[in-house]
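Hi again,

Forgot to attach this to my earlier email, sorry! This is the prediction with GLP bound. I've pasted everything inline since the attachment limit keeps bouncing my files.
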Amino acid sequence: MLKPRVFPDDEAASRYAADWLMARIRRQPSTLLCLAAGSTPMRTYALLAEQGAIQPQLFARVRLLKLDEWGGLAMNDPATCEQHLRAALVDPLRLADRYAAFESQPQEPVAECARIATWLDENGPIDTCVLGLGVNGHLGFNEPAKYLQPHAHVAVLSTESLAHGSLEGAKKRPAFGLTLGMADILQSRHILLLVTGPEKRAPLERLLSGRITTDFPASLLQLHGDVTLLCDSKAHPAAPR
Ligand code: GLP
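Structure tokens for the complex follow:
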């Protein structure tokens, strides 16, 4: 059963997460990190970037893979996962040469997913996958559904995803999602799941119920043997309602 490690606030959880990731990188300098965007991991990424300024050699061989992307937005749209990850980590850590990512506005979305799937076949598996928890239980854009998809695919975005705060500044509405699939995530050697803030309390409670269902894709993490789940007190089910 997944058991969260609870921190007083987002800052404390992010500091632990950044230290945890740096310890992994020290153990395996060429580690392949798969990264979610979204607001939850951004403080962790900022802390990693700070460390990169102090000890750049630590990140000299790290490889990055973007977990998901809003399809149909221009790559330079401020709402894209691309822009968030580049600003937070890729540029400060100078990882552009070792960074693989879905194009947000591909001519052929299915071919773009096949390109990323091939990249992962050739360069994977993911060593550490950093995930946030969607309010509806999604991981990346693996949305609640009767069937989930194993590998990189074009996703139909849920109402909850389309209401995500990061789209507020988007120049247009995304038409679809591009995401790694559930098998890609579950084949990661280690998974770091970050859950903070009061809006994540209900989904975290559902995750911790232990019931596994495709209606709540994050519940499949119960099948993985090495998930580090960090939450803050606001997201923890024991927090006052
Ligand atoms: C977004 C992304 C996910 C992200 C999740 C949670 O829509 N598709 O990759 O992890 O939802 O986002 P946040 O951390 O902002 O709550």
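The mean pLDDT is 97. The chain has one domain: 5-232.

That should be everything now.

G.
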